[in-house]
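Long-time lurker, first post. I've been practising inverse folding by hand and with some scripts of my own, and I keep getting stuck on stretches where the structure tokens seem ambiguous. Below is the full token string for one chain I'm working on. Before anyone asks, I'm not after the true native sequence, just a reasonable design that respects the backbone. If someone could post their per-position residues I'd love to compare against what I wrote down in my notebook.
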């Protein structure tokens, strides 16, 4: 009888552990994130982590995180200026550039701390991807996010 009780206890612990880890978000992460009206398919290795304490939708691969934001206007210049002003107020330098992803013009700003921010307009809304540190191949990640979502609409 003791052997059956021990096996039952072990099984219960395993089931409880799996349920607890699933609830805590260790298993079964989403592989896409909906921001505004657009659902972005996350690159391989990235999982949806929910909304962080700053209100950004967040995806992570365990080492790097990408944050998502949507503004209900298409005044991309205003949003870029707000970020530039924030950099200026913190004595950060920055470089701006732009590129095209699937026919969408994407604006990029990288600050002196290697944080990066990308903006683009789609269907009258400004979308932004950002990082708080350097992320390997971030331009490719941005192109992938845009291509996997907007191109299909």
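-- Answer (accepted) --
I ran through it position by position. Result:
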């Amino acid at each position: 009888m003791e052997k059956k009780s021990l096996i039952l206890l072990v099984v219960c612990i395993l089931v409880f552990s799996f349920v607890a880890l699933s609830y805590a978000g260790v298993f079964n992460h989403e592989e896409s994130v909906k921001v505004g009206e657009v659902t972005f398919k996350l690159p391989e290795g990235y999982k949806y982590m929910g909304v962080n304490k700053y209100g950004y939708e967040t995806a992570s691969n365990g080492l790097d995180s990408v944050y998502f934001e949507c503004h209900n206007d298409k005044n991309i210049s205003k949003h870029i200026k707000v970020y530039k002003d924030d950099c200026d107020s913190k004595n950060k330098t920055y470089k701006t550039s732009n590129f095209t992803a699937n026919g969408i013009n994407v604006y990029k700003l990288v600050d002196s701390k290697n944080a990066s921010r990308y903006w683009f307009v789609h269907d009258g809304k400004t979308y932004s991807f950002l990082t708080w540190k350097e992320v390997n191949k971030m331009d490719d990640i941005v192109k992938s996010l845009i291509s996997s979502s907007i191109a299909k609409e």
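A couple of notes from the structure itself: The longest helix spans residues 2-24. The chain has a mean pLDDT of 86. Happy to go over any region you disagree with.
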